[in-house]
Amino acid sequence: MPPRLNYLARPKLKRPVMVAGLPGIANIGKLAAEYLVHKLKAVKFAELYSEHFPEWAIQEGGAVRMLKADFFYARPRGVKHDIILATADVQAASPAGQYALTGEILDLAERHGADTVATMAAYVLSPGETRRGVVGAATDPTTTKLLEEHGVELLAGGMIVGMNGLLPGLAAARGMHGFCLLGTTRGGLLDVRASEAVLRALSSVFGFDIDLRELHQHAAALKFKPPSFRLPEGIEEEPTYIR
Q1: How does residue 1 score in pLDDT terms, banded at 50, 70 and 90?
Q2: Nearest Cα to 26, choosing from 238, 218, 195, 215?
Q3: What's the domain range around 171?
Q4: What's this model's pTM, rounded to 2 decimal places?
């Protein structure tokens, strides 16, 4: 099945930025994206189906549907540009698929005039490591300075594995700004505290307010499954890698 983008609406967006929150370690980015959709009353405008997703179908209420990525748009109060929110049921199932699906998502961002692509993900703490809050990385000096100005500790090394790294990295190759915000975590199925920290950092960087008082309640209502993310071939599951 070739990649298929299904538009539900054709919004005219003003200088949008794209923010992606995908399933992964502790579902930090996924929860953050779902909460942004909820609190910003974001409107869904597109779905992306791809052969690069795992070979699964999802059962919901007796119905079966294919895996997909979803795209929403919103304009937070006080901000003069739109935000495209991207999330998905899973990440792509192979390294080649991650590159291909990342390209499809960036095609959409580019088509709507986005100049920045950000991802929200996890930084898995090593045994004995006491770092807390949010760390990050950016693709250019201007965005690096922006993160520093908003209190994001910049990473000095390591790898951001999977689409959380590919999206901002390949966005830069297309002339867009890119950055990743990583909530520190010990792992597990769901780290609400880390998602909260990432959302605070994101809202600070982009200059909008978000009420986080419902985050824990919202998380309890979501049915997260164990992360389906698969590491690229040849890379072992070790806590030294950044997700």
Answers
A1: low
A2: 195
A3: 4-221
A4: 0.90
